[in-house]
Amino acid sequence: MSTPRGPIVLATDFGDSPYVGQIKGVIASIAPDAHVIDLTHQVAPQDIVEGLWHLKGALAYFPRGTIFVAVVDPGVGTARRALCVDAGDFLAVGPDNGILSFIAPEKRRAVHLIEAEEYTLRKKSAVFHGRDIFAPAAAHLANGLDPAKLGPAGEGVIELPWIVPRATKDGLEGAVLVVDRFGNLLTNIEGHRAAADATVTIEKTPIGSLRTTYSDAEVGRPLALIGSSGFIEIAIRNGSAAKGLGLGKGARVSVKGAR
Amino acid sequence: MSTPRGPIVLATDFGDSPYVGQIKGVIASIAPDAHVIDLTHQVAPQDIVEGLWHLKGALAYFPRGTIFVAVVDPGVGTARRALCVDAGDFLAVGPDNGILSFIAPEKRRAVHLIEAEEYTLRKKSAVFHGRDIFAPAAAHLANGLDPAKLGPAGEGVIELPWIVPRATKDGLEGAVLVVDRFGNLLTNIEGHRAAADATVTIEKTPIGSLRTTYSDAEVGRPLALIGSSGFIEIAIRNGSAAKGLGLGKGARVSVKGAR
Amino acid sequence: MSTPRGPIVLATDFGDSPYVGQIKGVIASIAPDAHVIDLTHQVAPQDIVEGLWHLKGALAYFPRGTIFVAVVDPGVGTARRALCVDAGDFLAVGPDNGILSFIAPEKRRAVHLIEAEEYTLRKKSAVFHGRDIFAPAAAHLANGLDPAKLGPAGEGVIELPWIVPRATKDGLEGAVLVVDRFGNLLTNIEGHRAAADATVTIEKTPIGSLRTTYSDAEVGRPLALIGSSGFIEIAIRNGSAAKGLGLGKGARVSVKGAR
Q1: pTM, 2 dp
Q2: Residue B1 has pLDDT above 60, yes or no
Q3: Closest residue of C to B10, CA-based?
Q4: Does B228 touch chain C (CB under 8 A)?
Q5: What is the DSSP string of B225-241?
Q6: CATH classification number, C8-150, choose in 1.10.579.10, 3.20.20.380, 3.20.20.60, 3.40.50.10790
Q7: Domain limits, chain A
Q8: For a Cys-Cys bond, which of A145, B235, C127, C257 suits C198, CB 3.0-4.6 Å?
Q9: Complex-level ipTM
């Protein structure tokens, strides 16, 4: 029997630690039939933007009713707020540090503070709200809890506006947000915004027009393509673009012929 | 409630990337009650043979109705075919690049191309058929779909005949297919084919007769035994056979007294 | 439909190997609806104490009926016993090498040898009892099997008494049992045993009183706090205490004002 809502999808920077297992134990204690999916636990420690990027790219692939648990939480134990964002088709819980802005503002129907003692663990560690606050809240939501029961309505959500590409006179300018394990440089520019004849430049290096697959370039030569999460990326066939171009997170990328 | 078939078992070279989570999202969207098991995502990138070896060794441990999703897919986006192999007791989906030959030819009842638009994602990335073609096909199969609905019957399956050991005048000759994280050299020779007094040689180094466990040799000395997946392996107690012998994938192994 | 007992929680030193997937295949074959949770597979190879520490710290977060499968098993294939410990609220299976002493002696209601052929795999590898003995036993327990059916009552369980902190004239003396991936030094001294004004010393370095979160110290300075599993740990804010202090497993920790 599935729970009324779900699955619960986890995105954290906990790596291979046993903390993920503890989170699942808390969920199983409250919602034994909830289906839990690991999106990723390999976000670089405390890298809110990388967590956000992965959530944004994955959003389209999860069913209605999904509850995202986003725990990249460098401010754990400080005054930062714990939030639940109700996006209608799905819910998300996490710290209010920018990571929840993976949900576009127009999709946010309501925001609630997570404060109700009865929906979090009684005993809270100062350093692990993923297990003690966000996991139990998500489990109760999976059981069908009205998000408004978690706490009073919260004002807004911290935005990370700089991660949205800005319009230039002939296209868009964005940045590399993530370097994946192959050395591909993943940007914040969605592929569908580029025209068929769009051309890509990273810092001062022209990369050319968008290709379809990695094999559309000579070995060792950089190419731009629309990656599997829908964002433009710069890659080197059978190599590392990060190493080959000497670039990484924050490198500026411009796409002429995009809007 | 379980699905009519299942579990769905994933074997890929995606490592710790969030792509595995996206695959699970697609499956949960189509078959919310399907049980998904990660066999491994740590196949060396694009190493079809390693993927095949792991699938072959694991086959006996999964229940009737299992759907294997085998995605080591260096040719993604090219003309290589997407297939579903019906082996009666279980099904497998994956690219036609040799990896599906983990199913012995005599077990293959039917082979179908995966082409039906209604059982794959409408929007397909050129670089991620694991998520866009194989995951949805597997999820529909878990829901009970007749494999013949996926597409027309396909001719054969690409074989990797060289990974089958060949008979010699006094035994079998095979090769090292996988080096595990302990440096053990895992071969393609099934242990049950060796007689009680069989002796093993790797390249020109005699290893001696088959032992029962790692502790049956002196520390630092190589030994041969039947590994946990049923294949003969060469190990060094408390050490790395790969380093100690200076050998790796492709090293020739002969077993005198096997057939 | 959930199984009568569960979830089944796995703690092993198998790392990213496909062996974990085989274990899950065996469980799915016997108990298709069992819910399996990975606590950790990243225990350092053969480090019984690290496995025990993780199990002990996680225990409180799992529901009644949980079946722990503890497989750190350097003696696999030797005469060491295979046991099931019945702790009333939960069960645990694993080798009798000390790892099962994560269950406090007063919680152990009964101990059974795992010997019944019908509840283990017929064909047993000498090197992989996790799959061939402990996984099937756990799956049958999840299906509701009476633990006494697994085999005759077993005498005791191997203890690791040295991992319990000892009382000194003004507090407790314990040791570092685990170094986590951030270089934090995790001890065996439970935080609730320390008074509000307790002070911590590691080897001969005074660390001061217990802080609440990592940010309660200057960057680069060591601090002691109660970690998320409830044990006292020594950390360096934004750094590695293991490197900074030049200490690791076995380092002696004394807490003045604890009992």
Answers
A1: 0.93
A2: no
A3: C21
A4: yes
A5: EE-TTSEEEEEETTB-H
A6: 3.40.50.10790
A7: 8-150, 164-258
A8: C257
A9: 0.91
